[in-house]
Specification:
By secondary structure, the protein is of the alpha/beta class. The protein is about 20% helix and about 30% strand. The protein folds into three domains: about 5-180, Galactose-binding domain-like (Jelly Rolls, Sandwich), CATH 2.60.120; about 185-260, Immunoglobulin-like (Sandwich), CATH 2.60.40; about 265-570, TIM Barrel (Alpha-Beta Barrel), CATH 3.20.20.80. Helix 5 (about 385-405) packs parallel to helix 6 and helix 7 (about 505-525) packs parallel to helix 8 (about 560-570). The longest helix has 22 residues, at about 505-525. The chain is globular, with a radius of gyration of 23 Å. The two termini are about 45 Å apart.
Length: about 575
């Protein structure tokens, strides 16, 4: 196996790892970043840790950049510890934030329990004020991660990796930070664009009921926590990939003040002038041409080595003429969505799959047979555990609330190819109750339940031919392509996985051009509303990316791919 690194991983400064404020839509001045060197230890469940070693947070111990290079076993606990610094200022409350910890975490400050969280992809916080005693203070985090040995969410991780399943990782994999707030402070914002009104509705929520105010374009709007404030910009500038305009505003509650932003845009499924159901953006039909985005890194695994690394992937996709990324079975740090917001990139957001190990017959047979099963047969889909189904719903709600304010997110995907699928209609109902503003692809690929406004297809092993949905739904090709091209010196392992081999970059582009010109562009004319090519970059055995896994080589010239996408977007 070749050791691959990215340029950002090679340049990393252990004393300044991912230092940018992690929450751009709710930024405060008081901010202490806790990334950097911590101690970690592995111990069997029920035993105290003894042999401590250094780890670079927020990289999982399985990631080369962590400096550990060891996997967490299912019968082990992963322990972290570090001294807690002071937070500038005095009085008020001290909050501790974790971007994501995989899978189950317990947090202690000087031995006092302050937080417990289950779910490896969503953030959590704790008020640690009462545990911040004078003198030395120690932060301890205890993690358990069973990967695919239980029903917990796990994404594309698998204990025995290979093919489309990747190296598992555990523990802290997003930024950890602290901040000081007043006794009464803002806990969250709810930002809802109202395009038809040329306005945006802002709801400021606080830890206790209190007066709040929102300042925008020199005017201050007063309300109470939980009440909506309507902001009407002087200049109406709708957000789109071609014009990603963001409006800045501040929200305050007493002495607490946060900086934020919003955008004006709408998304929907409607009939075009010919009566064909299509995806609309800002009231007009808008073809979405995208890439499947796994966001794995050879040196950081789940964690991008730097902010610049995240920006590189988004900009490369834009330079190739793509206007959408499907975030596949993963939830990124909020800074990734912020860069999509400001650079102009639509996002389809997958929920993270869980349940017991996938049944190969259930998840692969439909690719050939086209047979779709009813998803109330829980055992068929590895969802016989009621506790696991409840956990999925809890994480679904956390994910929607977490990303609700991001204008780039335009579509939710609760299930993909039957992985841990169950009661998709109920998942759609729950999403819709939380968010009435976005489109939902209830079953990407197969095991379509015949509901919703989208018919979502995956095509890899055959020629794609557009067929209108018999229910009149909007048709999207949510995965296709996956053509491989292995480049010497940029391949991670000895095996390669993909759907059509190419010996050179020239051959790869020739096949891509044929695919788009003969199958995708004609389908767009016939009624196809979106197409998602697999994928942004190679990932481990998968050598089917537009870029190599180390991001050092772009296999297809950006200008040439952009010319193809221009024909799709016209």
């Amino acid at each position: 196996m070749d050791k691959l690194t990215t340029v950002w991983g090679e340049q990393i400064d252990p004393q300044a790892v991912l230092t940018e404020y992690p929450r751009p839509q709710m930024a405060r001045a008081s901010y202490v970043n806790l990334n950097g060197y911590w101690d970690c230890a592995f111990a069997r469940v029920g035993e105290a840790p003894t042999a401590w070693q250094r780890i670079l947070v927020p990289f999982s111990p399985e990631a080369p950049l962590s400096g550990v290079g060891r996997a967490l076993a299912r019968d082990e606990m992963l322990w972290y510890r570090r001294a807690l610094p002071d937070v500038p200022g005095s009085g008020g409350r001290v909050l501790l934030h974790f971007g994501a910890v995989d899978q189950q975490a317990e947090v202690y400050v000087s031995g006092v329990p302050v937080a417990r969280h289950a779910g490896g992809y969503t953030p959590f916080s704790a008020d640690i004020t009462d545990a911040m005693t004078d003198g030395e203070r120690e932060l301890t985090v205890c993690v358990r991660d069973e990967t695919d040995a239980a029903w917990h969410s796990r994404g594309k991780q698998r204990t025995k990796r290979g093919g489309i399943w990747y190296t598992p990782q555990s523990g802290i994999w997003q930024t950890v930070w602290m901040e000081r707030v007043p006794d009464v402070y803002i806990t969250s914002l709810e930002i809802t664009p109202c395009l038809e009104e040329k306005a945006c509705r802002i709801v400021v929520k606080t830890n206790v009921s209190a007066p709040v105010c929102v300042t925008f374009e020199g005017r201050t709007h007063e309300a109470r926590s939980g009440e909506a404030v309507t902001l009407v910009p002087e200049a109406f500038l709708p957000w789109s990939p071609e014009s990603p305009h963001l409006y800045a505003f501040t929200a305050a509650c007493g002495e607490d003040c946060v900086e934020s932003y919003f955008a004006l845009r709408s998304v929907a499924v409607r009939a075009d002038a010919q009566g064909v159901a299509r995806l609309f953006l800002n009231g007009r039909p808008y073809f979405q041409t995208g890439l499947l985005d796994q966001s794995y890194w050879p040196d950081g695994l789940y964690t991008a080595p730097s902010d610049a690394a995240m920006i590189h992937d988004i900009r490369t996709a834009r330079d190739m003429g793509f206007n959408m990324l499907r975030k596949h079975i993963k939830v990124e740090p909020l800074r990734w969505y912020y860069h999509c917001d400001r650079l102009g990139m639509l996002v389809w957001q997958d929920m993270v799959n869980g349940g017991r190990r996938e049944n190969p017959l259930i998840i692969t047979a439909p690719l050939v047979t086209g047979v779709h099963l009813r998803d109330h047969h829980y055992a068929w889909f590895g969802r016989q555990d009621a506790q696991g189904r409840a956990a999925y719903y809890a994480e679904l709600e956390e994910t929607v609330r977490h990303l609700y304010n991001s204008p780039c997110v335009v579509l939710w995907v609760p299930f993909n190819e039957g992985w841990g699928q169950f009661d998709a209609a109920e998942a759609v109902r729950r999403i819709r109750a939380l968010d009435a503003t976005r489109v939902i692809d209830h079953a990407s690929g197969w095991h379509d339940q015949g509901i919703g406004t989208l018919k979502s297809e995956h095509v890899y092993f055959r020629r794609y031919r557009f067929r209108p949905d018999r229910r009149g739904r909007c048709v999207v090709l949510s995965e296709f392509g996956g053509y491989t091209c292995a480049l010497a010196g940029h391949v991670w392992g000895g095996k390669t996985f993909g759907y059509k081999k190419n010996a050179s970059r020239q051959e790869l582009f020739a096949q891509l051009r044929r695919l788009y010109e003969e199958e995708i562009i004609p389908a767009r004319t016939q009624g196809l509303a979106a197409a998602v090519y697999t994928q942004v970059s190679d990932v481990e055995d998968e050598i089917n990316g537009m870029m190599t896994y180390d991001r050092r080589v772009t296999k297809v010239a950006c200008a040439e791919m952009a010319a193809i996408n221009a024909r799709l977007r016209d």
